[in-house]
Amino acid sequence: MKSFLISLLAMLIFCCANVSFAQDKLIFASGSPMDSYQSMITYPLLKEACKRNGINLEVKSYPSPRALLMSNSGALDGELHRVYEFHEVSNGKYPNLVRIECQLLSSYVAVFSKDHNIKISSCADLKDATVGYRAGRQNIKKQLSETLPESHIFSQTSELSLFRMVGKGLLDYVISESIEGKKFLYLYPELKTIKEVGRLSEMKIYAYINKKYSQLAPKIAATLNEMKRDGTFKSIVIEARNSYCMKKNCTTHVCEEKWPALDQHKALTSVNAGQVSQ
């Protein structure tokens, strides 16, 4: 009888272990709208990688701070796109998020202003100015806080509102992703006096998964690298980029004008780089 109970207990432990490792669905958070540049590029890439591992990936969009709280707590299973150095710039505030070690995207932190004569190359050039950025962007928050007093830094969940504040002279600058910012300038005539006046840094974008599924991180990363080798990664990026530009009606004004042909871009011909640059 004792040996039977021991065997039964062993079977239960084994079954529970298998259940914990078997996963057929993940729900990730996106800290930006699903029709934003980063989401439209990273979602189909990660969805295909998960599909190849027998996992259905869903993504729910929330304001960035809330998205982080939910994915870190385990209410959601991960983050669709965050910068490589996310834990450093967030001061380790979200320890339950594990980086999936394959770069999905490369983009740029850009500065927008009504003053077309000024050129910004670092946060030091923003000294004494008032600057806005979208709440939840930990890398931008850290860069600004190292240079500007807190009273000069403004964050909102609506990036469009920040651009409008610059247009009305209520802020000196708004910090945004370059492509996203240019999209606003094209779509909203009242912002026509604003232009990109510099770039602060390159953002290398990765997905993060909650540590309860940390065993999946290397599997998904390996699949993404395989997608780079077999050409799927490149084809998904091209389709997603074209879809973004058509959806935003900015094909000739923002996208094609600034992006080189993807089949000639060295970042996409390198399996290890995993970048798609603007």
Termini gap: 68 Å
Q: Report Rg.
A: 21 Å
How many individual β-strands?
A: 9
Could you report the average pLDDT, rounded to the nearest whole number? 83
Instruction: Enumerate the spans where pLDDT stays under 50 for 5 or more consecutive residues.
Output: 12-21, 256-278
Please tally the helical runs, counting DSSP H or I stretches of 4 or more residues: 11
Strand content: 15-25%
Principal-axes geometry comes out as globular
The description of the largest β-sheet is: 9 strands, mixed
Instruction: State the helical fraction.
Output: 40-55%
Helix and strand succession? HEHEHEHEEEHEHEHEHHHH
> Based on helices, strands and strand pairing, what is the structural class?
alpha/beta
Summarize the structure in words.
The protein has helices at 2-21, 37-52, 64-73, 86-89, 138-145, 159-167, 178-187, 217-230, 232-248, 251-258, 266-269, and strands spanning 25-30, 56-61, 78-83, 97-99, 105-113, 131-134, 153-156, 173-177, 195-210. The protein has 278 residues and is α/β, with parallel strands linked by helices. Helices cover 43% and strands 21% of the residues. The model is unreliable at 12-21 and 256-278 (pLDDT under 50). The chain has 11 helices and 9 strands. Strands 1, 2, 3, 4, 5, 6, 7, 8 and 9 form a 9-stranded mixed beta sheet that branches. Helix 2 (37-52) links the parallel strand 1 and strand 2 (56-61). The termini are far apart. The longest helix has 20 residues, at 2-21.
